[in-house]
Amino acid sequence: MRNNEDNSLGFIVITGAGSGIGLSIVETLLSAGYMKLVCQYRSRNEELFGLLKRFNLSPEDYAIKAELTDEEDVKKINDFGKRKFGNSYALINVAGASTNSMSWKMTKDSFTNVLNANLLSAFLCSKEFIPEMRSQSFGRIINFSSVVAFTGTVGSAHYCAAKAGVVGLSKALSLELANKNITVNTVALGYFDRGLINDVSLPLQEDIKAKTPIKRFGQANEVGGLIKYILGKDAEFTTGQVFHINGGLY
Questions:
Q1: 109-153 per-position pLDDT tens digit
Q2: Which residues pair with 171 in a beta bridge?
Q3: Hey, how many other C-beta atoms are within 10 angstroms of the C-beta on 174?
Q4: Which residue in 10, 43, 108, 148 has its CB near the most CB atoms, within 10 A?
Q5: Which helix (H) or strand (E) holds 92?
Q6: Is 159 a catalytic site residue?
Q7: SS3 at position 244
Q8: Which residues form a coiled coil (predicted)?
Q9: For residue 237, what are the CA distances in angstroms to 23, 82, 184?
């Protein structure tokens, strides 16, 4: 990132910042000197608040609790950022959720809830921030997908569908917004040592590692370097792309 210019840029929103990959991205950006962050969380906040305090930052000034499937709550995130920092610079949609169920046992509500948590949330957040990005002719949107959007996986048809939808959403937005100097890219993650993997049984975790060419899970801090690149000046010609970080699994 352009460390010497960071404080003159607008704010970056990170959804799902309360834990997992989102929390790691917050740490990466703070360590890089970017201090205009708006960190969305839904319920868990202990780790996020602790991280902010380590950087001598007040959680009340940098973190906001919001439900991303509620348009009014999403608007509150933008309003929060504007009050604190001015214009927006980037939106990083990390938030997501899943459950485990075979498709023929899956309820409509379960399917819809996972679709909303992963796809609708990314759409609503993008919709909220795009008008301002268009008016200033600049912006960065990074949406998070998954390797299972490309490979599928047993017991998560709703999650696979949602994450595939995120890829399609990003592709469409990249075409709609390119003439306004707004880039939209997707990061498709493999299996990492934080987040949803904690809900997977230990035998299945070992099986996943065995099938991954690098033979381990990714570490959360291995995502931050890519995020800094996409946010930076060197990525101004990079849009509509899917970046895979999965240890060679796909």
A1: 999 999 999 999 999 999 999 999 999 999 999 999 999 999 999
A2: none
A3: 19
A4: 148
A5: strand 88-93
A6: yes
A7: strand
A8: none
A9: 27, 27, 11
Between CA 204 and CA 13 the distance in angstroms is 34
User: Residues 6 or more apart from 11 whose CB is under 8 A from it?
Assistant: 36, 37, 38, 81, 84, 85, 86, 87, 88, 89
**For the domain that residue 65 is a member of, what is the CATH number?**
3.40.50.720
Does the residue 36 lie in any domain? yes
pTM of the predicted protein model: 0.94
Q: Is residue 1 part of a domain?
A: no
Beta bridge partners of 11: 88
List the single range of 6-20, 191-205, 235-249 with lowest mean pLDDT.
191-205
Determine, yes or no, domain membership for 250: no
Enumerate the H helices of 6-116 as residue ranges: 20-31, 46-54, 59-62, 71-85, 108-115
Spatial contact of 145 and 98, defined as CB atoms under 8 Å apart: no
Residue 112 CA, distance from chain mean position: 20
Q: How many separate domains does the chain show?
A: 1
